[in-house]
Amino acid sequence: MQQIPQSIDEVQSTLSETGYVCGRALATVVFLSLKLGRPLFLEGEAGVGKTEIAKALAKCLGRRLIRLQCYEGLDASSAVYEWNFPAQMIAIRTAEAQGSADRDILNHELFGPDFLIERPLLQAMRPDANGAPILLIDELDRTDEPFEAFLLEALSDFQVTIPEIGTIEAPEPPIVILTSNRTREVHDALKRRCLYHWVDYPQFDREVEILNARAPEVAENLSREIVAFVQSLRTEDIFKKPGVAETIDWAKCLLALDVVNLSPEVISDTLGAILKYQDDIQKIQGGEAKRILDEVKKSLDAA
After folding, report:
1. CA atoms 17, 220, 247, 201: torsion sign
2. 61-114 pLDDT, tens digit each
3. In the 8-state DSSP scheme, what is residue 11?
């Protein structure tokens, strides 16, 4: 287990050791979250590195990463615990066959730890030899308001109640990171419990630095062309702008194809690595790709 970073600079340097490159503003809010024990709420477009920062923190701090992937219809029971019904049924039938089906004893055993399936929120409340785990509540905006209300209570007290067992309280609060792609607004009451940061697309030099850290095998001139092209794409009228994750994926695809420089033909062949909607791909293929590439190369030559 690593010690919590003691300064903003240490947060940046520690995260960079895992390949996560972040600016000072993000490093500051991460440092404050760790220092004050406050949940960190990260909003931004998909693919800008919100989820990755939780993974990077878990790696550099030597903590367990527990991920609650949110989805429409997620409820408290699915996020906290479930009972192992098939195992309970087998236990009931076995007890009946052996003639030892004492109702009170059986109820006590059936709703005990042996039949409890722990889900992410309950797992995060458990003690860990490596220190409090990182609890990633990913894409919170996919859930609904009732789950937000439940989460508000759970994060306020860092405890959950199982009717058959009782209240389970975390001996040490987990390090909580919540993310949202802002497909809808998350309630203010939950945001007020957290430190907030909007994770934006990085500037050119920062994105080149990120790409160099995550795909160091890519040549410098190709990295600059890739980043400049992706950043130009983000200014186009397309349905889904590519994130940093797509920049890295595209670079690795081009590396696998032994590409040395971007060309309109290579771009058209590999657009599926950065654009995920057919309408966007059709719009950029061919003449548009050549136009954007010509502008990119002209701007890079002038720099």
Report:
1. positive
2. 999 999 999 999 998 888 999 988 888 888 888 877 776 656 666 667 788 888
3. H
Query: Integer distance in angstroms from the first to the last C-alpha of the chain?
Result: 44
pLDDT tens profile 263-290: 999 999 999 999 999 999 999 987 899 9
Residue with tokens 């695809």: 253
Rounded Cα distance, 68 and 157, in Å: 18
| Coil, helix or strand at residue 116 | strand
Other CB atoms within 10 A of residue 125 CB: 25
Among candidate residues 143, 175, 141, the one with its CA nearest the CA of residue 67: 175
* Closest alpha carbon to 240 in 285, 203, 280, 291: 280
Ranges assigned E (strand) in the chain: 40-43, 65-69, 81-83, 116-118, 134-138, 159-162, 166-169, 175-180, 195-198
Residue 221 has pLDDT above 70, yes or no: yes
H or E stretch including 220? helix 220-233
Beta bridge partners of 116: 83
Run of H or E including 88? helix 85-98
- Which DSSP category does 3 fall into? P
The amino acid present at 99, given as its one-letter code, is G
Contact 68, 137 (CB under 8 A): yes
Task: Provide the 10 A C-beta neighbour count for residue 161.
Answer: 13
Indicate if the alpha-carbon torsion angle 29, 35, 40, 46 is positive or negative.
positive
137 φ, ψ (degrees, to nearest 5): -105, 100
* pTM for the whole structure: 0.88
β-strand pairing of 159-162 with 166-169: antiparallel
- Reading the block at residue 22, the tokens are 């972040």
Instruction: Name residues whose C-beta falls within 8 Å of residue 102's C-beta, 6 or more positions apart in sequence.
Output: none
Which H or E element spans position 29? helix 24-36
